[in-house]
Each structure stands twice: as structure tokens, then as C-alpha cells.
UniProtKB/TrEMBL annotation:
Name of the protein described by the UniProt record: DNA-binding transcriptional LysR family regulator
Keywords attached to this entry: DNA-binding, Transcription, Transcription regulation
Organism: Anaerospora hongkongensis
A Pfam family matched in the record: LysR_substrate
InterPro entries in alphabetical order: HTH-type_LysR_regulators, LysR_HTH_N, LysR_subst-bd, WH-like_DNA-bd_sf, WH_DNA-bd_sf
Keyword DNA-binding: yes
Gene3D superfamilies found in the cross-reference section: 3.40.190.290, Winged helix-like DNA-binding domain superfamily/Winged helix DNA-binding domain
Family from the record: Belongs to the LysR transcriptional regulatory family.
GO MF term set: DNA binding; DNA-binding transcription factor activity
Amino acid sequence: MFKGKEYVYEVYKEKSFSRAAQNLYISQPALSAAIKKIESRIGCLLFDRSSKAIRLTEGGIEYIKAIESIMDIETRFANHLNNLNQLKIGRLAIGASNVFASFILPAIITAFTDQYPAIKVNLIESTTAHLEEQLFSGALDFVLDNYSLDETIYEKHLFCRECLLLAVPPKLSSNIPAREYQLSIDDIRQGKHLNPATKSVPLSLFAQEPFIFLRSGNDTRVRAEKIFLENKLIPRIVLELDQLATAYNVCCYGLGATIISDTLAQKATPNTSMHYYKLDSPHTFRSVFFYNKQNKYITKAMEEFIKIAQKVDIDTVMNKSSSS
């Protein structure tokens, strides 16, 4: 109904078909024909042509009011898009498990909001299963996780690589025969466990010790089971938990050994009495990705967040977390 509205509005502004035609860079007959076509389409005359001065009819007055309302909406929408593209407004929802939400994302979100203070960032901390549900539904823009999500559904952006370690409280007697393989928290922070010259501990030394595992389905649990299977061992699990940070904290109190990521070891509050061991298995290495749903519209805010996240020095993030 409002196709060609710019012709009608120009005539209304100029009160002249000839001046309006000049402004629109068309001939006056072409403009008159276009206006008549619009009037025919809506079934109402817009201009009273009976006098020398062009005036709006009653229907024309309402048509102009409608045009101006449409123009206001278009202008507001254009301004909104411009503000989105300039990152003057917007929202971003990020999901992560406890370790990443507590130790990784705060530094990245701070760097992002320092640069784009008008973007409201919402951080959701939960289990991988729940986060994937939220990502699939569109409630989350990104999920930061070390679990491999379906690549036919989700696009991934590499953030970092991490390595699994065996963490053993000092009270467990197996530390004695494993003494030559022990690594301190300082060794882990210096990356000694990644040095090929560093010896891996025989997991059989801890075959009789109690273990704290994450619940089934968690990536760390899946990898831990594979590591034990490679060594033809069955772990004596005394406690199952949902979060890696909780498992590590319980381990620090001496309940049992556990398998953790070097990310957590480097970022958690230092425990100088804990013993760490390198494990000989390809399952100890994994990648951490930011995931977003395939075919989801990628906003400018999302693009900039990933750029900033990938620029943040992971070692710097770890050092800031550990020194705070």
C-alpha cells in the first residue's frame, strides 16, 4: 500500500509536482503517472488538484500521517542497526562450566567491557549438558568448553589447549614410590609437564588409592576412564561430582586422588603440598573452544568478543587469577 511513498511525500513537501519531479530526478509526467497509480491502488485521491495550490485530501492527510509514522520507524530501526554495528548497544550471553567461568572468562569479559562498555554481558555457569541445551535454544551466544560438541550443529573457535594431570594429596602412601615423578605447582605453572623430557608416572602405582571422579558424560570423566583402561586398571572411585574445581578441592583435603586439567592447577588457589604427575596418554590433551550454533546470526558484538578472547594471553590470565 505504501510502495512509492517517497513520490507522494516529495509532492506534499514541495506543494508542487514540478519541483518534486526535479528533486526526484524524474519527469513531471512520470511523477504524475506514479501518483495516479498509487491513488488507484489505494482507491483514494491524495491531492486536490482543483486549485492552483496543491492541497491534500482528507485521505491524503491520513496517508501522509501513515508515511511519517513509517519513516519514524525506519529511522529508529536504522539508528538501532547503526548502534549495534558501532557496539553502542547490545547484549551477549556466555556460558561455561565452573573452571572457565571462575578463572578464564572474567579477564576476557573485563577486556571486552573495557572496550565496549555499552554491551551488557551475561555469564551463565552450569554443566556442559545444560549449557548445550541453552546454546541450542538460542539463549546463549557462546559456550566455552573442552567437551566436543557436534560440529554439524555448532561452529567452534579455538581458545587454547590444555593437558590432564594426576593430582594426589600428600597423605596418600603411593606418593612415596612415585617420588621421582612428582611435580610441584611451580613446575606445572612453568609448563614442565609439557616437556617431553619429563617422565610420566606409572598409573599402576596408584591402583589401590581412592579416586574422585566427575560424573559420567563429563569430558574429564570420559578421558580418565580411557586412561585407566589403557593401563588395564579399574579406579576405586569413592566420590563422583559435577564440577572439576569441586573434585580438586575435595582432593586437596585428602579424600582421594583425581585427574584435573593444568588450566585448573595453574589458576586455582595454590596448594604447595599437593603432588602432581604427568600421565602418558594421548587422552590427556584436549582443546578448549568457544562454540556457537551453526546458522545463527553472528552479531558484531559476538565477532569482537571472539577477537578479544583469542588475543588475551592465556598465561597472563592465569597469572592474574593466581595472584589475586
